[in-house]
Each structure stands twice: as structure tokens, then as C-alpha cells.
Amino acid sequence: MDEKMKLKMRMSKIKAIALLCLLSAFFLSACQKSKEAGLKPGVYALQDNESEFPGDFTITLHSDGTFQYYETPISSYIGMGHYSIKDDMVTFKEDVDGCSGDVNYYRIVDGELLFKSKDSSNYRYVPLEDGASFAWKSEI
């Protein structure tokens, strides 16, 4: 084989490796997107809570990025705002007029929301412990 042929083969190998790297990066980013999309809109209910009103605390996620929550039937307060998802973390910001401005954080684990007390504002009537779980209950 002459030097020109060897150079062409080497360039072909480099192009093939570059293409594989590019495809790998594409598939990894696609996996990340589907991970973020793992939280479906609907009503999520608090699980295994030792409060006086277990199961009444709900968070409703809308597909347009808004949410509302309802802590207990003894309060008329309904918190609402916008949520964002980054990796496996959900940030709820009460940013609608008249709402508190509170921010709460949750981790997505197997389609459930697990409360992260660190840096969260928490709630007024049913304060949550770290790791409190909300499971999908129904469509809106």
C-alpha cells in the first residue's frame, strides 16, 4: 500500500470515530430529555403522611408549566405558580399575583415527587418532612 492509500484509510477511521462520538452525544442528550419528561401532568397526592388529613394535600401539574396545590380542606388557600424541571429536580415557584412567592424543591424518583426540605420554603398548614412523597393520582 502506498502512503496516499494509508492516509485515506486513516482519515476514514477518524471520520468514523468522530461520527460515533457525535451520535453518542446525541443519544445521551435524548436520554436526558426523556428523563426530564418523566413527570406527567395530573394530580399528585401526598402519601403516608401522619397529619390529621392524610391524602388531602395535592399538587396539580399542568402541561403548560403551571401548578397549584391545596394543603388541607380546613384552609381556602390554593397556592399556584410555575414549575420547572432540570435533570431530576422540580422547582415550584409561587409567582402568581397574590401568592406567597415561596419556592419548594422536589426530586423526581420513579415518577413520584420527593420533597427536598433544604432550601425549600415549606408549607403553612401541612409542613413536610424531607423526603415526603407525592404520587400521581389522576388526570386533571
Distinctive features:
140 residues; alpha+beta
How is this structure best described in words?
An 8-stranded antiparallel barrel has the order 1-2-3-4-5-6-7-8. It starts with a helix and ends with a strand. It is α+β, with helices and mostly antiparallel strands and 140 residues long. It has one helix spanning 3-36; strands at 42-46, 58-61, 66-70, 79-86, 89-93, 103-109, 112-116, 133-138. Helices cover 24% and strands 32% of the residues. The protein is built from 1 helix and 8 strands; from the N terminus they run αββββββββ.
Physical arrangement of strands within the biggest beta sheet: 1-2-3-4-5-6-7-8
Q: What is the radius of gyration?
A: 23 Å
What is the structural class? alpha+beta
The largest β sheet comes out as: 8 strands, antiparallel, barrel
Beta strands, count? 8
Beta-strand residue fraction: 25-35%
Roughly what is the average pLDDT, rounded to an integer?
83
End-to-end separation in angstroms reads: 69 Å
Order of helices and strands: HEEEEEEEE
Q: What portion of residues is helical? A: 10-25%
How many alpha or pi helices? 1
Low-confidence stretches: 29-37
What is the global morphology?
A: elongated
Any chance you could write out the topology, listing elements then pairs?
Layout: H1 3-36, E1 42-46, E2 58-61, E3 66-70, E4 79-86, E5 89-93, E6 103-109, E7 112-116, E8 133-138
Antiparallel strand pairs: 1-2, 1-8, 2-3, 3-4, 4-5, 5-6, 6-7, 7-8
